[in-house]
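1st attempt posting a full record on here, be nice pls
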Amino acid sequence: MKELATLLPESKRKLLLYLCEHKDEFRLRTIRRISQEAHLAYITTKKVLREFEALGLVRVYVVGRAKVIVPTEKLKKMCETREVEK
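the predicted structure (as tokens):
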């Protein structure tokens, strides 16, 4: 897993690490908040999260006009195995 993370582009790796760090928090996070906290451009964050959603790593819920990002169990398991390898 560690080797796989090093092969990812910088933006995907940064976002994946951010999501792993905050996987157990019960705060609602929008795409804009994630992009600000992960120090990525909004459009980059949006594109990468769309890819992560297709892989089943996150779920996107529409709440009013905002889209809320929630990590799935698949992402949480992946983050746990990654922490074990550190």
